[in-house]
Design a protein that fits this description.
single chain; alpha+beta; 4-stranded antiparallel β-sheet; 5 helices; 4 strands
């Protein structure tokens, strides 16, 4: 049986976006809705070997020592990291949500609502 990926290599906008793929691939189906709910509220998440962090997730010390950024930072335990803008984040979320809804069609309405909340949260008013 082929391993299921949330994001395929050919779906990456750029090869440097690998940490995004790796972090989202760590999210289990059982935890997916919790992660999507958090993202729709502008909150990042962590997995065993990586994390997605928004500027507002940082504590005061980290905010003082990290240049402010718009978007989300994806980092892996090995130190590989990238910051992407909200438009790119929404691009990846759209791919992931479509795949999730194919596997769990009963969750489609909830997923679509949370994805729309992400668009509002990140102030993205064009369709992706």
């Amino acid at each position: 049986m082929k391993k299921k990926f949330r994001i395929e290599d050919e779906e990456l906008i750029n090869k440097s976006h690998f940490p995004i793929k790796a972090v989202f691939d760590m999210v289990s189906d059982a935890r997916f809705m919790e992660v999507l709910t958090g993202l729709s509220r502008g909150r990042g998440f962590g997995e065993n070997y990586g994390a997605c962090v928004f500027w507002n997730d940082l504590d005061d010390y980290d905010k003082e020592n990290t240049p402010q950024y718009e978007g989300a930072e994806f980092g892996l335990h090995n130190g590989e990291e990238i910051i992407i803008g909200y438009q790119d984040l929404l691009y990846y979320l759209t791919i992931i949500c479509k795949k999730y809804c194919k596997e769990f069609p009963e969750e489609t309405r909830k997923v679509e609502k949370l994805l729309n909340n992400c668009k509002e949260q990140y102030k993205i008013y064009i369709s992706v």
